[in-house]
Amino acid sequence: MTTPFPPPPVDTIDWNNVGFKVREVNGHIESHFSYSGGGTWSEPKFVASPHLQIHGMAPGLNYGQQAYEGMKAFRSPGNKKVTIFRPNRNAVRMQHSADFVSIPRVPEEHFIKCVNLAVAANAEFVPPHETGAAMYIRPLIFGSGAQLGLNPPDEYTFVVFVMPTGVYHGVHAVDALILEDFDRSAPEGTGSAKVGGNYAPVLRHSQRAYAEKYGITLHLDSKTRSEIDEFSTSAFIGVRKNPTTKNDVTIVVPDSKNVIDSVTASSVYELASKALGYKVEKRRIPYEELKEFDEVFAAGTAAALVPIKSITMKSRNDKFSYNVGSDESGGEVCSKLLKMLKGIQNGTVEDKFSWNFVV
Ligand code: COI
């Protein structure tokens, strides 16, 4: 007799307080590659452990030769199925990142197969539909062949971890701080790659900002320090309304070669134009325009959409405030877009764009 899929959620987790933290699940998926072994990725293998066996001289550890991804899986109403949101987009983005750090590309089909297997092998940890929580999926790729010289090694490892999570940054509006004494990425650097080297150097600055009660940090472009790039954890989205009528919504996202191509932001961008009839603009956003926005929000897989209450730039004594709704759960535009995005993801709104991949 076959066991029905998906299995019900485990009852060992308080599903209404999942949080955003590491949790033990059944295990992860591994696939390996070596040039000397033929230059193809091995068939995925399930490993019943959160630990990796890794040589201490792996360039992934020593030289930052790694890249990662983030996606989410959702349980549909009535526990009928589990779906993953736009994994094909993440597959392509991981190939983009891999090129930056001389890691062989994982073919899209193989990427999706590994991600599917990781979710399927841990399906009882996909949160109940009603909770609004999701299973966070973390694919990770790194140079794993021991290597002392600064050359690409022979061996690479691709792994997929999963864990149940709520949303990063919580569900309420946060204050943002522009980081002024640190450039996230060099003008001709790795800014568009989802590599750990773009994240670790931010930590000491974001920790300082959190201590000062800012909930999120924002980066300007490093060449001119005059345009908006992205938040440290997620993409930037600005909302303009006609100043007289307060209608005619325009969604503005940065066009910068140094930001990560956010799957959430581009989904919002598409929903805004195709489903809600808003104007959308992908273009450079000068710092001066921050005072023109009615709403600002951060968009990311982990974050979903985070309403931004204010943006501060200390050296200029500027603090711009935005509409986040009376209960601080988001202004009108943010709330509308989030409702639609979440609805598509969790199966309560028709998926007209075929964004959901059934596990
Ligand atoms: C994601 O949103 O998936 C990310 O990778 C951001 C990370 C800082 C949690």
Automatic annotation (TrEMBL):
Which keywords belong to this entry? Answer: Aminotransferase, Pyridoxal phosphate, Transferase
Q: Which Gene Ontology terms cover its molecular function?
A: branched-chain-amino-acid transaminase activity
- CDD domains tied to this protein: BCAT_beta_family
Q: Which cofactor does it need?
A: pyridoxal 5'-phosphate
**Pathway it belongs to?**
Secondary metabolite biosynthesis
Q: Does the keyword NADP apply?
A: no
Q: Which SUPFAM superfamilies match?
A: D-aminoacid aminotransferase-like PLP-dependent enzymes
Q: Which residues carry this modification: N6-(pyridoxal phosphate)lysine?
A: K194
Mind listing the GO biological process terms from this record?
branched-chain amino acid metabolic process
Q: Which Pfam family name is an example for this entry? A: Aminotran_4
Q: Which PANTHER family match?
A: AMINO ACID AMINOTRANSFERASE (PTHR42825), BRANCHED-CHAIN-AMINO-ACID AMINOTRANSFERASE 3, CHLOROPLASTIC-RELATED (PTHR42825:SF2)
As for family, the record states:
Belongs to the class-IV pyridoxal-phosphate-dependent aminotransferase family.
Q: What is this protein called?
A: Branched-chain amino acid aminotransferase
Species per Swiss-Prot/TrEMBL record: Talaromyces stipitatus (strain ATCC 10500 / CBS 375.48 / QM 6759 / NRRL 1006)
Q: Please name the taxonomic classification of the source.
A: Eukaryota, Fungi, Dikarya, Ascomycota, Pezizomycotina
